[in-house]
Specification:
alpha/beta; Rossmann fold; 2 domains
């Protein structure tokens, strides 16, 4: 199958390894991955800030760029949620749901001998609705111990521009999330959204924690 990669702004700038890992996983499974170089922001930040008209222009551009592909994959459930639920681009999938629900694959041949906690981000739960696809993939990773994350469904406090406009509230939510991650006994906290991982990883680092934040795609690409 020929798949187009939508890498996203935050992914490109802060988590490029997640995009590379996405390509590696799909190519390992025998699929061709292409990267339309003219891709731009999905407009999620514009929508968060009330700039619907500007977001609409970006939506029309993305439709022109990705509309001709049968399948588009992105390592970001929040951007997938915007493109699919707000813009109606039904050919866009988050990586884990593409693997499990579209391709019927749960074991991607990964090996990652560490204790891992999975943070189910707000958009993955309530907008993209990926379900248990990430957990099904993690359970098939050789050597990985999946540990329970207390209050896993609670927001990390990032919320796009929420973390800027409501910094004190965001910081308090982040402190709760970091405490839960450390309480789990995990060595690694994983999730589907680079933005949330950036937030959580920064919080853990400032606490002097040994727990690392890592995108799910990186774990699935490990061998």
């Amino acid at each position: 199958m020929r798949v187009a990669l939508f890498v996203t702004c935050v992914g490109d700038a802060m988590f490029p390894e997640a995009g590379r890992a996405t390509v590696e996983i799909l190519e390992r499974l025998g699929h061709e991955v292409v990267f339309p170089a003219e891709q731009t922001c999905c407009g999620q930040m514009h929508l968060n800030s009330g700039y619907a008209e500007e977001a609409g222009r970006l939506a029309r551009r993305l439709e022109e760029i990705f509309g001709g592909f049968e399948v588009v994959v992105s390592p970001s459930s929040s951007c997938v949620g915007v493109m699919r639920e707000h813009y109606g681009l039904r050919n866009v999938f988050e990586l884990s749901e593409l693997l499990v629900h579209r391709l019927g694959v749960e074991d991607v041949g990964a090996s990652f001998p560490h204790r891992v906690a999975y943070h189910s981000t707000c958009h993955s739960l309530r907008v993209a609705r990926v379900g248990d696809a990430p957990l099904r993939l993690l359970r098939q990773v050789h050597g990985l111990e999946l540990v329970e994350l207390p209050r896993a469904d609670e927001c990390c406090g990032f919320g796009g521009t929420f973390s800027l406009k409501n910094a004190e509230t965001s910081s308090a939510m982040l402190a709760d999330k970091c405490a839960s991650v450390e309480e789990s006994g995990a060595e690694v906290c994983t999730a589907l959204d680079p933005s949330c991982l950036l937030h959580i990883g920064g919080g853990l680092s400032r606490r002097g924690s040994r727990v690392k934040a890592m995108h799910l795609a990186e774990i699935l690409a490990s061998r």
